Amino acid sequence: MEYAAYTIQGDGVTLYRLYGTGPAVEVPARIDGRKVTKLADHLFADEMSVLCDSKQMLLAVQKGSEWIKLEEGQTAASRSLLGQEALCGEKVGAVYIPEGVRQIGNYAFYGLYQLKEVCFPSTLQRIGWGMFNACRMTERIVFRLTEPEDGRDTYETPAMMKEVVDSLSNEIDAVVIRGEEEWYRLRFPAYYEEGKENTPARIIEIIYHGTGHQYRNCFLNRELQFDRYDEVFPLAAAQESPMTNVHLILNRLRSGPLVNEDILKRYLNYLRQENEVMMEVILSDPEFDPALTLRMLDHRNLFTRACLDQSIRIASEKKIPSAVSCLMDIRARRFPQEMDSKRRSRYAL
Q1: Does residue 118 belong to any structural domain of this protein?
Q2: I need a labelling partner for 304 at 20 to 30 A (CA). Which of 168, 207, 230, 315 fits?
Q3: Domain count, the chain
């Protein structure tokens, strides 16, 4: 049975606790007909916030797709739930927050050690301090955009994207969904900061390790600047792992505003140098069809003859027939003279 502890504030609901099995948690959009507008402090932490008064709590139970308020007798019998068997700690792997939620309290996801993904609504207006403290496994943040009324293909920045991304120092993918379509995604590498004393002045300097800090600074007035994001890449090429950089480049080439020619050349040259890593990423990513990614890269004029031969060998070894077929087609189209030469040699024998 799924339960929720909540209070009513104005015409909305503040959610204080959820009880259930996990690991994928869908926060209720409505409870007893009222919209959930706020997630309270320490919602998924091991212990409820000391500011919470359990005597004021109401309890609801999930019945099908609806959340129904428990009657007084049922509520009294169920109050033993408060503080027990809550969704917290290692029970939660993903949290999906519905449209209508405007505010998330302090330390809301504190201590969710296995939390990998969170989906935020387009209605979000405020997040609290320390939201992701002790969330060491988080790797994917999803933001939702509403469809513009005029249908323009603009790459706007979702509400609170900067604040959410800044609250995580892990390596993450920020995925932006508009309507039902993935609009763009960006990889933000990990980073950590270190305080170093500058003697004899005894001034403490903050030193940042990793380019994640630079990538997170690619916002102006909370709006993401794609050109600034692309300009950080020379630092990432020198400091980050090939796996991180390949993911970063593929994200930029698949969607979002086009990169300028100079940056595009850098991206493509890097992929040619790290062709084995690139193929490993493409062939092992469950979210994207390898053939579609390979065709996209061919459209960008990535493949040299050496890259194609190596890529075909890797795809053959991993036994991905769709990728092998796609690469063979690219080779036949890119280098038709060599293919004709091989055919003539075969017939001559």
Answers
A1: no
A2: 230
A3: 3
59 located within any domain: yes
pLDDT one-digit tens code per residue, 34-87: 999 999 999 999 888 777 777 788 999 999 889 999 876 555 545 556 555 799
Within 8 A by CB and 6+ apart from 337, the residues are: none
Residue 280 lies in a domain: no
117 is a domain residue: no
Pair 1, 105 in one domain = yes
pTM for the structure as a whole:
0.89
172 and 200 assigned to the same domain = yes
What is the C-alpha separation between 277 and 237, in angstroms, rounded?
A: 14
Q: Last residue of some domain: 238, 273, 308? A: 273
- Beta strand pairing call for 3-9 and 12-19: antiparallel
Residue 336 burial (CB count, 10 A): 10
Residue 138 tokens, joined? 């988080």
**Residue 218's CB: how many other CB atoms inside 10 A?**
20
- Measured N-to-C along each axis, helices 242-254 and 275-284 cross at an angle, to the nearest 10 degrees, of 60
Pair 265, 160 in one domain:
yes
The sign of the dihedral angle between the CA atoms of 274, 279, 284, 285 is positive
How many whole angstroms separate alpha carbon 267 and alpha carbon 185? 16
| Buried-state track 30-48, b at ≥16 Cβ within 10 A, e below 16 | bbbebbbbbbbbbbbbeeb
B/e letters for 155-186, b = 16+ CB within 10 Å, e = fewer, are bebbbbbbebbebbbbbbbbbbbbeeeebbbb
The pair of three-digit structure tokens given for residue 344, joined into one six-digit string: 């003539």
Q: Indicate if 261 and 192 belong to the same structural domain.
A: yes
Distance CA 167, CA 109 (A): 12
> pLDDT, tens digit, for every residue of 177-192?
998 899 999 999 999 9
- 283-289 long-range contacts, Cβ below 8 Å, gap at least 24? 283/314, 283/315, 283/318, 283/320, 283/323, 288/254, 289/322
Phi, then psi, of 237 in degrees rounded to 5: -60, -30
**Which domain covers residue 304, as residue numbers?**
287-349
Whether residue 284 contacts residue 290, with contact meaning beta carbons closer than 8 Å, is answered with: no
